[in-house]
Design goal:
alpha+beta; 9-stranded mixed beta sheet; 459 residues; 4-stranded antiparallel beta sheet; 48% helix
Length: 459
């Protein structure tokens, strides 16, 4: 059985940097996803209590699919009796299989099926740890506790780091080490010591300010929880499914624990947007979920210029110390922009004319916000190149995230022709930039089950 999960990236529509100084910020999900697939190699007898219920449900769904209408009729006539009959038969079959699997693992405790594997497909990187080795290092973790999101202690984090270091991560990719550590913590806490293969693919460029690390933590948490005791998913539903509200809260809390391993003291905005989707208004530690009433489409331009977020944030703080009154006015203006933007997005738009009028207001707010970000000193030559290029086509743009490079947003109005979009993209790509067109404010974390057994690839 294979479960797949996906989680979107995020953009900051308004308020970056100023939010650190008490202003309002608005963030939104984008239709660019990180995908995770999870497949367990075998099931240990000692894990029967945690795996039997979802496994029985899965097998029952399979039988219903094979038997068709007759099975449906039987369920309608005497559902409980049929469930008991099937459960008993499936249990006998699965128990025999689990005992055989246990014997196989006892014969060779270090075979390929007794390991935890992480495949970062886009980066052509694969990591593998024997379950015995993980148990030796993380024996303090004990039994899975999927319903209780827990912070990784500094002592345990050092032990996990030692496991990661054993993989000899290339120096050029060493920044991935914290993400791999977060994966080990989430997997061990939610699922315990079970052999499995996890495959990760992503449409999000790394380190560009689009919330790639949060999308990773959310999608991993969503996949792991789908096969835990803490949620009760509908195994019979085909296609992508959305978690219930309480289950999304659990996904979000676990993802936040992963983010803490990666970033130390994250704000929680990125993982919240990735989990719940749509849009979020954030001020002084308080998150308010928004519901958009208008379609929004953005051109996301990745300048491919790396930036130091901590240095950029520090630079704004230093400028604030030097010019407190002027910067206070800047932050107040940003706060007003964020509030007006959230009001526009949530207000009804009954026709194309209304949508066009709202888009024009959003364009002006984006341009004003960009001007204020330039006042804060967080723009960059590459960002200015994108601004000039899009302005030639009368399109409004602003940086998103920390600035100093990273990504730039360009609003694509509903009535804008595809020909113009193609011209803009062509010109930006000729500068060496990467262009992605994405819808804004879609669903958050989603999951599905592969009833055919899976191919081990996240798609």
């Amino acid at each position: 059985m294979e479960v797949r999960a996906r989680a979107p990236g995020k953009i900051i529509l308004a308020g970056e940097h100023a939010v650190v100084h008490g202003s309002t910020a608005v963030a939104a999900s984008i239709n660019l996803y990180t995908h995770v697939s999870l497949r367990f190699h075998s099931i240990s007898v000692s894990d029967e209590s945690t795996n039997l219920f979802p496994l029985l449900l899965f097998r029952i769904v399979m039988i219903r699919k094979m038997w068709g209408r007759k099975m449906v009729d039987l369920f309608l006539l005497d559902r409980s009796a049929v469930l008991c009959l099937i459960a008993r038969k499936v249990w006998e079959m699965e128990k025999e299989k689990m005992i055989d699997d246990e014997r196989t693992r006892d014969d060779n405790d270090l075979n390929d099926d007794d390991s935890l594997k992480l495949h970062l497909k886009d980066l052509s990187l694969e990591y593998s740890w024997s379950i015995r080795r993980i148990k030796e290092v993380l024996q303090e973790v004990g039994c899975p506790f999927s319903s209780t999101p827990t912070t990784c202690t500094p002592e345990l984090l050092k032990l996990i780091a030692a496991l990661v270091e054993e993989q000899n991560i290339p120096e050029a990719k060493f920044g991935l080490a914290s993400g791999v550590s977060a994966f080990i913590w989430l997997f061990t806490c939610i699922q315990g010591f079970k052999p499995a293969t996890v495959v990760v693919t992503s449409e999000l460029p790394l380190g560009s300010g689009l919330g790639s690390s949060a999308a990773f933590c959310v999608s991993v948490s969503a996949a792991l929880l789908a096969l835990s005791d803490s949620v009760t998913p509908d195994f019979s539903q085909q296609g992508w499914s959305v978690y219930g509200e309480n289950e999304l809260e659990l996904v979000n809390k676990w993802a936040f624990e992963g983010e803490k391993i990666i970033h130390g003291k994250p704000s929680g905005i990125d993982n919240s947007v990735s989990t719940f989707g749509n849009m979020i208004k954030f001020k002084s530690g308080s998150l308010t979920r928004l519901s958009s009433n208008m379609p929004l489409r953005m051109l996301v331009t990745n300048t491919k210029v790396g930036r130091n977020t901590k240095a950029l944030v520090a630079g704004v703080s230093e400028r604030t110390l030097r010019h407190p009154d002027a910067m206070k006015s800047v932050f107040n203006a940003v706060d007003s922009i964020s509030k007006e933007l959230s009001t526009i997005i949530q207000s009804p738009a009954p026709d194309e004319l209304s949508i066009t009028e709202k888009e024009e207001k959003l364009e002006e707010l984006m341009e004003m916000n960009q001007g204020l970000l330039q006042c804060m000193g967080v723009s960059h030559a590459s960002i200015e190149t994108v601004l000039r290029t899009t302005l030639k086509y009368k399109l409004a743009s602003k940086l998103t995230g920390a600035g100093g490079g990273g990504c730039v947003l360009t609003l694509l109005p509903t009535l804008l022709s595809g020909t113009v979009v193609d011209k803009v993209i062509s010109e930006l790509e000729s500068c060496g930039f990467q262009c992605l067109v994405s819808g804004i404010g879609g669903n958050g974390a989603e999951f599905c089950f592969d009833l055919s057994g899976g191919s081990n690839e996240a798609q």
